[in-house]
Write a structure and sequence with these properties.
alpha/beta, TIM Barrel, single chain, globular, two-stranded antiparallel ribbon
Length: 317
């Protein structure tokens, strides 16, 4: 079922969350345990992130170097299938540009289509470690706009092999990422919004936002989107701060602001246990306001941990 159908048929704010695939060599059972802890709140969907392959140069005994893959979190497609089978909930895989050619992207989408996965979130993905600027794969999509266009081509029965006879069209509901406080690479908020509008015009049917801690940033973002002619659902991304150092690290990583009131409350805590409680309280209040003002979904970035999200959801749903 498409996410837009869930949202359009709902008479209240929905619940969803994002998970990380296990590290290479890890067990899926811990992941399942985290999902199980949140199922009582009836999530409408579960996002599964995708991470590009990484490499390191390892020295051989003869002094030469060997390029070795250390892909850390494989298995997004398989995990989506496992989640849908075990929990009977919609899984939404991220598809990314980084590390994938257009052919590899097409093959991944074919697999997802065969598995009955109806929704994807199309994003550019992070820079390769050590790269100042994003470098696309050879014959790959350069940005999320190109990626969305490729998915829409397949929805229209257009595959990369032009000689295919009567190929079956896919029917993906495609989501795009939105940035209430501007994408880190955008020149300014206006150009960022212009690019988002292009993604919607290319076929994206919903927007999931970057995390934010100041609801006014989200409400302003929604207003600017509507003024620009973007009328798709805009899903707020939520993350509770659970450790004091996150107050300093998250703004650097995600190009977001920490409200002064939250910073002052966190500055007074003596340890991470107190920081956890402050973060939970802030997030609950943040979510209650979003619910009251009609946010279509509360989408939690769990970072692979469900405890905080469970405590918050218990007060909301």
């Amino acid at each position: 079922m498409k996410l837009t159908e869930y949202i359009n048929n709902a008479d209240e704010t929905l619940f969803s969350f994002e998970i990380l695939p296990p590290l290479k060599g890890g067990s899926i059972e811990r992941l399942f345990n985290g999902i199980e802890a949140l199922m009582e709140f009836k999530p409408s969907f579960v996002d599964v992130t995708y991470h590009r392959e990484e490499y390191v140069m390892r020295k051989r005994s003869d002094g030469s170097y060997n390029k070795v893959s250390i892909r850390k979190r494989p298995g997004t497609v398989a995990i989506c299938a496992a989640i849908m089978h075990r929990f009977q909930v919609e899984a939404v895989p991220h598809i990314i540009c980084g590390g994938f050619s257009r052919d590899e992207t097409e093959n991944a989408l074919i697999d997802l289509n065969f598995l009955g996965i109806d929704n994807v979130l199309a994003i550019r993905g992070d820079n390769q470690r050590g790269e100042r600027n994003f470098v696309p794969e050879v014959r790959g999509n350069k940005n999320a706009l190109e990626l969305i266009r490729q998915v829409q081509d397949m929805n229209n029965g257009i595959y990369l092999d032009e000689e295919l006879k009567n190929p079956n069209p896919t029917d993906f509901c495609v989501g795009a990422a939105g940035y209430p406080e501007k994408h880190i690479d955008a020149i300014n908020p206006a150009t960022d919004l212009k690019f988002l509008k292009q993604k919607i015009d290319a076929g994206a049917e919903f927007i999931t936002t970057q995390m934010f801690f100041d609801n006014s940033k989200y409400f302003d973002f929604v207003d600017r989107c509507r003024a620009a002619g973007i009328d798709v659902p805009i899903i707020p991304g939520i993350k509770p701060i659970t450790r004091k150092k996150q107050m300093y690290n998250l703004p650097k990583i995600f190009n977001i602001d920490i409200p002064m009131e939250l910073e002052e409350a966190m500055s007074d805590v003596k340890n991470d246990e107190e920081a956890y409680q402050v973060g939970i309280e802030w997030c609950v209040n943040q979510c209650k306001e979003l619910q009251a003002k009609g946010a279509p979904v509360l989408h939690f970035y769990t970072m692979g941990l469900s405890k905080a999200t469970r405590e918050i959801a218990a007060q909301l749903f």
